Write the structure tokens for this entry.
Amino acid sequence: MLTTKKLGLVLGAALLAAPFTASAADAPAAFNVCKACHKVEAGKNGVGPSLFGVFGAKAGHAEGYKYSEAHLKSGLTWDEATLAKYLADPKAVVPGNKMAFVGLKKPDDVTAVIAYLKTLK
Ligand code: HEC
């Protein structure tokens, strides 16, 4: 009886974990706030530039998008460290940029969003 119960617990835990592990390429919940302004398909710019292929690219990577001067002049490359700082506080990293977003306050959200951005290629 005890072993059956334990097995049930293990199975239950596996089922609970499945939705998170099985869909690694799906957007994390923390990305929902970004969707108001960003599309993830290549070439589709909205209020903000498409985020397709942004990881590892230089600031101003989306073709056909009208970036602010401040953003273009920043000379940043969107690697892990730069994105982590930018997503937590966009205005501090690129003063005068036009991304009207206060930033992700939870470090876990920043990590999850960066992991997702890496898959957009
Ligand atoms: C209110 C709209 C808005 C929201 C919300 C928003 N952004 Fe942006 N984002 C922009 C705009 C506008 C720019 C262009 C900034 C500029 O040109 O000054 C931008 C630029 C960027 C860039 C730089 C792209 C490049 O090609 O250099 C990244 C990366 C980015 N946003 C990621 C995110 C992520 C991730 C989120 C959610 C956590 C988010 N943004 C939320 C509007 C938004």
